[in-house]
């Protein structure tokens, strides 16, 4: 005890390492909060993850810590962020990692950020739609976006929390209310369905998924997810059965994962071992989120021709938001591409997608305007 100091002092040392907001003040017995901006060791972008201790948040934090474009990584959550930060900060990559815990530290987590990634909120359980998450996640996204308006209104925002079809309009309304809205900087992350589409098409066609590009437009739930199989690169032709199978599998990929994980969970562990699925770590979801975040950072850096699909404010259809291919640049979205020629199957799908999307968008807008 002598050598290591008392418990408060030990906590203070650990906390100061993890969190620049907690520094042990000379002569004080406990922790005292002081304001301090995180400093990065290497040049690069400052990125905050809100919801960093969650199933997506943790692997996302690990992968962003490995990204050479990131110099400072802020990990914010309402629980467990110190443990996650301790772990991630031991990786010998360039980004400096800082921990932020609880609402009182939200603003410090956000000050000066170039990119804010939001996977905060509850995930689906079997039998639920993404829209069933609205009641809880709408309020969470609203609070986090209010923080962004105050602390980093020019940051690019990657919104992952579901239902994306409603949370993006919620974020837009919060930013509009604060007078900080820039539609070029707000992007709903739909990359995961593109990743799945590339994989499933590659499986059917016997191709390497890294060489396949499937544009997926519309939104991020059920029938609003519209893969444009007529525009796959390299050009492929599909039988009607293959088109039905692929469209349905891409639209229901999220549900497939939720259900299979739940079945595995019900098997339990072997003997007394803990079932790893209890932790709900979501690695491919984080992979997709990082693929998208990396594209945004490359755009910010000024790389040419960075093109990905995302759910954004759009004039591609009559709806105010729509997912389609966008080109990313130094200030966010530089260009939104039109849908291109659709076949009859896709035209029918588009009408279904727009009907559901219109309701989800309106639900998000009304949540803030009510
Ligand atoms: N867009 C996509 O492609 C995609 C993919 C997968 C999951 N999701 C969505 O992402 C969300 C998170 O999924 P998950 O599996 O990581 O869930 P999770 O429950 O494992 O993690 C969510 C994290 O958010 C935190 N959180 C809750 N309220 C918060 C608040 N007010 N501020 C900050 N953090 C808060 C929780 O403490 C938790 O650590 C869900 O809504 C899920 O549906 C989206
Ligand atoms: O399906 C979900 O609930 C999570 C995510 O949107 C997914 O597509 O995996």
How would you characterize the overall build of this protein?
With 370 residues, the protein is an alpha/beta fold. It has eleven helices and 13 strands. Strands 5-4-3-6-7-8 form a six-stranded parallel sheet, sandwiched between helices. It has a three-stranded antiparallel sheet with strand order 11-12-13. The chain has a two-stranded antiparallel sheet with strand order 1-2. Helix 2 (57-65) packs across helix 10 (283-301) and helix 5 (134-151) packs parallel to helix 6. It is globular and about 55 Å long. 44% of the residues are buried. The model is unreliable at 20-38 and 271-278 (pLDDT under 50). Bound molecules: nicotinamide-adenine-dinucleotide (NAD) and (2S)-2-hydroxybutanedioic acid. The site of (2S)-2-hydroxybutanedioic acid (LMR) has 10 residues, from helix 9. It catalyses: (S)-malate + NAD(+) = oxaloacetate + NADH + H(+). Homodimer. Substrate binds at residues 124, 130, 162, 196. Residues 190-367 form the Lactate/malate dehydrogenase C-terminal domain. GO terms for molecular function: L-malate dehydrogenase (NAD+) activity.
């Amino acid at each position: 005890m002598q050598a290591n100091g008392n418990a408060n002092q030990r906590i203070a040392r650990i906390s100061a390492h993890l969190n620049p907001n907690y520094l042990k003040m000379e002569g004080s017995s406990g922790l005292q909060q002081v304001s301090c901006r995180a400093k990065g060791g290497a040049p690069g972008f400052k990125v905050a993850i809100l919801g960093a201790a969650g199933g997506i948040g943790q692997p996302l934090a690990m992968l962003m810590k490995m990204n050479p474009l990131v110099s400072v990584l802020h990990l914010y959550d309402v629980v467990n962020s110190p443990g996650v930060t301790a772990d991630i900060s031991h990786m010998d990559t360039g980004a400096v990692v800082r921990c932020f815990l609880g609402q009182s530290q939200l603003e410090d987590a956000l000050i000066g950020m170039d990119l804010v990634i939001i996977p905060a909120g509850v995930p689906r359980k079997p039998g639920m739609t993404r829209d069933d998450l609205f009641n809880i996640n709408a309020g969470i996204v609203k609070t986090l976006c209010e923080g962004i308006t105050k602390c980093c209104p020019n940051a690019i925002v990657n919104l992952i929390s579901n239902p994306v079809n409603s949370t993006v309009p919620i974020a837009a309304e919060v930013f509009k209310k604060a007078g900080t809205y820039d539609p070029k900087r707000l992007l709903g992350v739909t990359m995961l369905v593109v990743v799945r589409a590339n994989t499933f098409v590659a499986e059917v066609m016997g191709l390497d998924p890294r060489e396949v590009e499937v544009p997926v437009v519309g939104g991020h739930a059920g029938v609003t997810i519209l893969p444009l199989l007529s525009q796959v690169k390299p050009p492929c032709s599909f039988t009607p059965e293959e088109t039905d199978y692929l469209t349905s599998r891409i639209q229901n990929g999220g549900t497939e994962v939720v259900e299979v994980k739940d079945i595995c969970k019900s098997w339990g562990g072997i003997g007394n071992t803990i079932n790893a699925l209890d932790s709900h770590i979501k690695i491919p979801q984080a992979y997709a989120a990082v693929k998208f975040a990396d594209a945004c950072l490359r755009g910010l850096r000024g790389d040419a021709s960075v093109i990905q699909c995302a759910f954004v404010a759009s004039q591609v259809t009559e709806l105010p938001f729509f997912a389609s291919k966008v080109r990313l640049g130094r200030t966010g979205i530089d260009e939104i591409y039109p849908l291109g020629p659709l076949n009859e199957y896709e035209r029918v799908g588009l009408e279904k997608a727009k009907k559901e999307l219109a309701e989800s968008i309106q639900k998000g807008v009304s949540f803030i305007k009510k």
